[in-house]
Amino acid sequence: MKKRILTCALLFMVLMLPVAAHAGVGDIIQLLVTITDTLKNGVGQVLEGIHRVNALTQNLQQQVAWPVTAIDQAKAEVAQARNQFAIIANQVRQIDVSSATLADPKQLEQTLRGANQASVRQIQPAFVKVFGAAPSTADATPSDRNLVDVDDAMASASLKTALVADTVSGQMLGVADSLEKQAASTSPGAAPFVTVEAEVANLENQAYLQRLLAAELREEATRLAHANALVKRSAEANRTLRDHMSQILSR
After folding, report:
1. How far is 207 from 81, CA to CA, in rounded Å?
2. Which class for 108: exposed (0-12), middle (13-18), buried (19 or more C-beta within 10 A)?
3. Per-residue pLDDT for the chain (251 aa), expressed as one digit of tens each?
4. Helix-then-strand count for the chain, H and E
5. Alpha-helix runs per DSSP H in 132-190
6. I want to staple 167 with a disulfide (CB 3.0 to 4.6 A). Which of 40, 117, 176, 203 is the partner?
């Protein structure tokens, strides 16, 4: 704004040079006084009004829209809460909840509680060592082998899903910690961006929860199917028994 005013003043002086060339010292002084008055009373009042508007806008932002005192207080409370929960979270993580005592069960438990997605392939061999493999054709009927195989498959799949979920939970905790740090130090204008990040993280968390729910539903469906298979087998055995009894009585 000041550069524009100086430019206009210089342009005005240049335009007046032909007149000033034929004027005396008093006329030149009068011309300068006129220019000064114009800048002071005309443009100066406009600049003063602009400064007042800027001051009012800044006061509105700092006192009403984003009060600095309230923002600093909120940041302090967030930092305090974060420190308290961080201490509790560290204490919880340090609690050893492992319960297996034998070698093979302990290996399976350590794999499942490791929260390392790369260990998914280690679950199946550890699972077989603890729960055993499917019986051979010489030791069980085809229907029994099918039931054992599908039950083991669903149980193993659920354990793998739980391991992946633990890994994702650790990642989500890292995201939550990052958002807490941003909330404690971000500027008021950046608050909507932090809110969007939190909403996206919440959607991702909901998606993983849905996957866990789906795994639980599959396991429950398999359990019901297993129970129904036993009922069907009992019905088949009863039918076979009736056929045999009919053959015996018909002799």
Report:
1. 27
2. buried
3. 545 555 555 555 545 555 444 455 566 666 666 766 666 666 667 777 787 888 888 777 777 767 777 777 877 887 787 787 778 877 877 888 888 889 999 999 999 888 888 889 999 999 999 999 989 988 888 888 999 999 999 999 989 988 888 888 888 888 887 877 777 777 666 777 778 888 888 888 888 888 888 888 888 998 899 899 888 888 888 888 888 888 888 77
4. 8, 0
5. 142-185
6. 117
Query: Is the full-model pTM beyond 0.70?
Result: no
**Residue type (1 letter), 132:** G
Instruction: Give the tokens for residue 126.
Output: 């550890």
Task: Please state the separation of Cα 247 from the chain's center in Å.
Answer: 69
CB 187 within 8 A of CB 72: no
